[in-house]
Design goal:
Mean pLDDT: 84
Oligomer: single chain
Shape: elongated
Number of strands: 6
Structural class: alpha/beta
Low-confidence stretches: none
Distance between the termini: 47 Å
């Protein structure tokens, strides 16, 4: 193993860490990938050093990740390539505030931001969401590298 070039080992470790979700939802796959990369990084110093240098393992960040994992992912990024997504229902404002509070600290690393808003009030045909809360939480965001913004 020690004679294996870092580039080859990086490819092996990346392929070993990258896990697809069982249900096809990409966010769950991102969480599983980060968990696998963290476990592999505890193998030895060389694995840790190499895994920390693979941005594709750390750049998919979403609101269902535990707060510590969100911070870990952002801390491992060295370039602004974060793909940040939110799917939390607006009935959970503390979770939204917590996620945005952490992610906002690293907003200069955001390349893509995607928010899927759920809920539709059939009585008046209006969306039931938390756009105001998100707007307040992200006010004066330093998203200088943001290239894609999606709100659905």
């Amino acid at each position: 193993m020690s004679s294996l070039p870092d580039e080859i080992l990086a490819d092996i470790l990346e392929r070993s860490s990258f896990l697809l979700p069982h249900d096809g939802w990409k966010q769950r796959g991102a969480t599983r990938t980060v968990k696998a990369a963290i476990k592999l990084s505890h193998t030895c110093r060389r694995f840790r050093w190499i895994l920390f240098g693979i941005p594709s393992l750390w750049n998919r960040i979403h609101d269902e990740m535990p707060p510590g994992m969100v911070s870990t992912c952002f801390e491992r990024l060295t370039t602004p390539i974060a793909d940040v997504s939110m799917r939390l229902e607006c009935q959970k404002p503390p979770l939204i505030a917590q996620f945005i509070g952490i992610a906002k600290q690293f907003s200069n690393y955001w390349e893509h931001f995607e928010h899927h808003q759920s809920g539709f009030d059939e009585r008046d045909g209006k969306s039931v969401g938390c756009s105001d809360e998100i707007a307040k939480a992200t006010y004066q965001l330093d998203a200088s590298s943001l290239s894609t913004l999606t709100i659905q």
